[in-house]
UniProtKB/TrEMBL annotation:
Belongs to the leucine-binding protein family. SUPFAM superfamilies: Periplasmic binding protein-like I. This is Amino acid ABC transporter, periplasmic amino-acid binding protein. Keywords: Amino-acid transport, Signal, Transport. Residues 24-362 form the Leucine-binding protein domain. It comes from the Bacteria. Residues 1-21 form the signal peptide. Pfam families: Peripla_BP_6.
Amino acid sequence: MTKELALATAAALALAGGAWADVIKVGVIAPTSGPYATYGTQFRTGVDTYQAIHGHEVDGDTVEFIWRDSGGVNPDQARSHAQELIIREGVDYLAGFTFTPNALAVAQIIDQSQTPTVIFNAATSIITEESGFFVRPSFTLWQVSAPLAEWAHGQGIEEVVIAVSDYNPGIDAETGFRTAFEAAGGTVLDTIRMPLATTDFAPFMQRVRDAGPDAVFAFLPAGPPTFAFVKAYNDNGLPGAGVQLLGTGETDETTLEALGDAALGVYTAYHYSPDHDSPENEAFLAKLFELHPDAVPNFSTVQAYDGAHVIYEMIRAAGTDGPAAIEAVKGLEWISPRGPVQIDPETRHITQNVYIREVVRDEDGQLVNREFETIEAVPDLGLVNDY
Ligand code: PHB
C-alpha cells in the first residue's frame, strides 16, 4: 500500500467510526406563511440569537436547524413534515410547534422514532403526557391563568366572564382560571367559547357587557385574534362600563404598537416581557438587535432561544441518543432571559416565574408589558395541581 493510500484508508475508517465531526440535524415545524407567520420569524430570530452567542457547534459537531412551514392549525401537515424530516432528512431532534393540535399530531411518530421534540410554544398541559419524548420550555395556559385568577381576586375582582378560543389551550385557560378563581371565592358569571376563526368579536362583547362582571378573562392565540379582541373590547366601550380586561398573551409585543392606547391598562400574567429587568435579558436583547435591528422580540422569541439551549444541552449530554437525551434534560436548570427556570424531571415541562404585568408607556413613550409582581417557580399547574 502506498503512503497516500494508507492515509486515505485511515481517514475513511476514522470517518466511518464517527471520529470526525458530524452534523446533528434539528427539524423545526413552525408557521412561516399565513396569518401566524410571525411565530416562524420569532422562532428563527430566537434560534439565530442563541447560535450567535453559543456557536454553531457542540463538542465539535455542527448543529443544523432545518425549517418546515406548518401554516396555521394543521395537524396533517405537521405529521407529514415530521415523517419527512425524520425519514428522509434523518433529523435527530424535532422542535417548533406553535399550535397544540400540531404538536399532538406527532406524538406517536416521535415515540416510534425516539426523537426528542422540543416544544417552542404549544401550551396545552396534556401535550407532554402524550409522549415521553416531548420537552417543553415554553409555558402552559394553566401555568399563567391560575396565578392570574388568584391575583385578580386579591385585587377585589369578585365576578368575571371567561371568553376563550374554542380549542385545546382555550379550554385549559378557562379551566385553570375558573378553578383558581372559584377556589379563591370568586364567581364566574358566564363562559364564552369563541370559534378560532372569529374575526368579529362585537357580539361576544355585548354578551360580556350584559353579564355585568368586574372583569373579562380572555385567551386567544397571540397574533391577529388577540389584536381583534383587544380592539373590540375598547371599541365596544367595555373599559367605560367598568369591565377590566385580564389576559395572558393578549398584549403580545408584536401587536402592541398597533393597538396603541387601546392596550393601556390591560393586566396580564405571563412568563416573559422584553421589558424584564435582568442582565441575562439585556445580553439576549443586545445580541438579538445586533443581528436583527428591526426585530420585535416577544414570548415566542425567548421560547425558541431557550428551546435551542435545551437542544444544545441534550446534544452535549447524549449526542444523537434520543432516550439518553431525554433523561439528561430532566432537572436541567439555567437562567433564561425570562428569569430562573428548570425542566421539571417529572413532567418535562418548564418551571418558571409568572409575572403580573400592566401595559404602560415607558420612559421613551413605547408601550411595554411592565412586570410588577412575581409568582416564583410555578410548575405546569395543569399537571401538578393542588386546587
Ligand atoms: C396553542 O395552540 O397551544 C397556542 C397557540 C398560540 C398561543 C398560545 C397557545 O399564543
